[in-house]
Amino acid sequence: MNEMRIINCETGVETVRPLTAQEITQRTADQSRAEAERAEKDAKDALELAERTALATWIAGQSTLPEAARNALARATGVTLPVAE
Amino acid sequence: MSEGTTRGEAAAHILAREMGRRTRAVHTRIDDVEKARREALDELRAKHVAIEGVDERQDGLIDGLRADLGSVQQVASAIDQAHGETRELTAAQAQELVRIAQRLTANEATDARQDGVITEVVDRVDVLESTAPVPGPKGEKGDRGPSGPRGVMGPPGVPGAVGSGTGGGTGGGTINSVSVSSGLSITGTSDLTITNTGVRSLAGSGISVSSSTGAVTITAPSVTAGTGITVAGSGTTALTVSATGVQSLTAGNGITVSGTTTPTVSASLAAGTGIGISGTTTLSVNNTGVTSIVAGTNVSVSGATGAVTVNAPAYGTTITASTIGGTAAAGTSIGVAREDHKHAFPAGAAPSALTVSSTQATGTSASPALADHVHAMPGSATAGASAVGDTAATGTATTVALSDHRHSREAFGTPVVVNGQTTSLATGSLSTLARADHVHTMSNVGVVLASTALSAVSSVTFSSIPQTYQVLYVFGVGLYGTVTTTVTMTVNSVTTGYADTWVYWEHNGTTLSSGKLSSSSGASQTVQSMFSTANQGMVFHLWFSNYANSGTIVRYWNLRGQRYNVGSPDSVQERIGGGEVSAAPITSVTIAASSGNFSAGRLILMGY
Fold first, then answer.
1. Could you identify which of B57, B214, B444, B525 might form a hypothetical disulfide with B421, taking C-beta atoms 3.0 to 4.6 angstroms apart as the criterion?
2. Could you read off the pLDDT of B199-256 as tens digits, one per residue?
3. Is B592 within 8 Å of A7 when comparing Cβ atoms?
4. Nearest CB partner across the interface for B463, out of A6, A30, A31
């Protein structure tokens, strides 16, 4: 662990050396950044899901509109209307 | 010398001194002589004692010999009495007497020698005893006196009278032991019994003896010569008997001789072809073959029996010649052929020449082929050259190929360049050959620059990347070793300025979502992210365009598939993105896991 394999493309010779302190720090930073990116993305996904759920609920609640009109609105907005109980 | 001494006194004084010196010398000499005399006397006494010892031994021996002789005489007398006759000594007994006499003679010689020594010793003693105390000059040695007369040997004892039992009082010795020679045996101790165990009587066949005991005369029978035998010689000791008749037999032809004392002479007679033999004592020989002759065809005879002359047909003089292809014929001639007759035979001729593709032919020549005939063969010519794509051909040449002929071969050509863009499969049209170690130059073909296994390693760097391609391509496939891992990319060891924009699609089994992400000024570029269980699969592609051009921003594109989340909800994500990384040519690319090691897979770098 914490080793780098170096392949010389001209000679084909492979060597292995330990990671430098900077490279180890970089690994940690990369890991943190990836997790932050994932958290950011998950939060965004949750927000979008809530917005879409609210939109689908609102469309489904427009009882004055014919069902065909509600379905057309759902397809246009990319949401799935909840199944009526 | 004192003053007043006269010459006479001086002389007297000197004489006195000389006399004194000489007196002392004479005394010394007398002492020496006396000592030598005593030593000589001691030596002579010792010799005398030794001689006396020898005399005593000799006297004992002589007495023993006398006793032996007396014993022998007594034994002989006893034998005579036992046989009732006067018997001569046997040869062994006579030899024993001779040996005794020789020993007596030897003793007498020893006595004479001892007498001489004794006389010499006596003389020397007399000389020594008469020697004056003062030795004078030694005189000449006188002649040795004659030896004294040998003492008279005592007479042998007279044997005692036979049967008187008194023995020879004067000459009889003591018998210590009695031994007998062969043919005699003795038994007893005081009264001896001597037995003749040898010849006691004589008799024989074919000879005559005068008596069986005592002085016997043996007479052999007389020899008379028979027919063919002669007897030579007189007396009875040496006769020569010689054969004067047939002494040897030699077998002639047809005769055999066997045996020597009574030779057997045999003859044998065997019947040959046409002869018969019968009878034993009187043999009859018969002609069982031709008894008469009759002339047949072409033959004449002078008579049927007796001395017959048979005349054969005459030899023919005309002999026909043989020809090639001639047929057999019985002939009509009445002449006969001689043993060495000879038919004329066709002569040989030069054979015809062979040609390539000649066909078999019987021939029409009237001449035969000789054993060493040789046909002319077509000559050879230089073989033609082979060429790529040659087809088989019969050929039209009128010459033949030699066993070591060789065709010139096609030359070797230079391999062509294989262009990955334009070169297509082709049979080719060159007339040259390819060597086993030929090499083609490649162009416009993707080349694997490096390939390494992803196991037990956390990062991989491709260094010294050739700058001879248009595009770099990195392909990674494998497994993550840890639960949460991201894979990053850096180039030329630069850790700043990485910016990108992404579009993604994600599906969790029920919902497909998509979105757009972007980042800027990162220390590295993420090319794969995984938030799931360990050892989940990954795959990503990474392209760098225009990577070798200095002063130009290098752009990259990334396509990846990743299991983005496990449960709540479980989702898989595809991402496409890109960005700018450097204004310098890319000579190295590093792919690294942010946590743990890659557990399996492969990372490949290609250029094209």
1. B444
2. 777 777 777 778 777 777 777 777 778 888 888 876 556 778 788 877 777 888 878 8
3. no
4. A6
Task: Establish if B452 touches chain A: CB-CB under 8 angstroms.
Answer: yes
**Which tokens in the block code for residue A41?**
């993305």
Residues of A within 8 A of B595 (CB-CB) are 27, 31
Instruction: Tell how far CA B207 is from the center of its chain.
Output: 73
CB-based contact B471:B542 (threshold 8 Å): no
Burial state string for A33-46 with b = 16 or more CB within 10 A and e = fewer than 16: bbeebbeebeeebe
* 8 Å CB contact of B461 and A38: no
Closest CA to B228 of B240, B241, B242, B245: B245
Q: Find how far residue B273's CA is from the centre of its chain.
A: 63
Q: What is the ipTM of this complex?
A: 0.72
- pTM (2 d.p.): 0.41
Of B506, B478, B524, residue with least CA distance to B564: B506
Whole-number Cα distances in Å, B137 to B21, B131, B152: 19, 12, 42
Q: pLDDT tens across B495-538, in order?
A: 888 888 889 888 888 878 888 888 777 888 888 877 666 667 78
* Shortest Cα–Cα distance, B439 to chain A (Å): 19
Whole-angstrom distance, CA of residue B323 vs CA of residue B411: 62
Q: What is the dihedral of CA B381, B382, B387, B391, to 10 degrees?
A: 10
A interface with B, Cβ–Cβ < 8 A, is 1-12, 14, 16, 19, 22-23, 26-31, 33-35, 37-38, 41, 44-45, 48
Residue with tokens 């004329």: B344
* Chain A interface includes B464 (CB < 8 A): yes
Residue B569: asked if its preceding bond is cis (omega within 30°), the reply is: yes
d(CA A30, CA B525) in angstroms, rounded, equals: 9
DSSP string over B108-150: HHHHHHHHHHHHHHHHHHHHHHT--SS-----PPPPPPPPPPP
**Contacts of residue B374, Cβ cutoff 8 Å, sequence gap at least 6:** B351
Binary contact (A30, B463; C-beta < 8 A): no
